[in-house]
Design a protein that fits this description.
The chain has a single domain, classed as Alpha-Beta Plaits (2-Layer Sandwich). The two termini are about 30 Å apart. It is an alpha+beta fold. It has a four-stranded antiparallel beta sheet with strand order 2-3-1-4. The longest helix is centred in the middle third of the chain and has 20 residues, at about 90-110. It is built from eight helices and four strands. Strand 2 (about 70-75) and strand 3 form a beta hairpin. About 35% of the residues lie in helices and about 15% in strands.
Amino acid sequence: MRTNPAVGEFYHVYNRGTDKRKIFLSQRDYQRFIILLYLANSSQPVRIDLRRNSIEKLFEADRGIELVDIGAYCLMPNHFHILLKEKVENGTSLFMQKITTAYTMYFNKKHERTGALLQGTYKAEHLTTDNYLKYIYSYIHLNPVKLIEPTWRENGIKNKQKVKSFLAAYQYSSYQDYLESDRVEKIIINKKAFPVYFERIGDFNKMIEFWLSFNEQ
């Protein structure tokens, strides 16, 4: 699905590796994409120099005008999901162009390959209802469950406590930021730009519990 994003509207943006190939092969790969979620969301050119700057310093960079507000994200071995709100005209398109171009260049150089890494142009799903927008938070954040229980959506959760612990420890999404963990990556998301669904950590946990238990109902 592809739509033309408009300023002030909410979108679920996603893409996967070409031929469903893995696009994250190491912790460093995940880390690079997460840094780009911050630095590519900018009117400024993307510059990453980890030889001279710590990760903490990169997250302090002056970005000028932000292109989008990010509400949630999740990186999986062969795809990614981002919930965003467009801030400036064509902001979504420019943001996605910057982040995917920069990441592909990094990945190809590091892994000594050439050609396209992602499956064509990104997909953008327009979130037009409040219920669907709220649901996307759980959809995005529960993606990693498939890594330890691949058929959980069809067959339910076998070990719910194990799943919750796994999600709470998963570094490559904004899940920890909704648990209010004190980590530098929390600056990527801007909760204030989105409806207030989770005033407290308990509200977020209740949503997660509901969907993990959905097949039990």
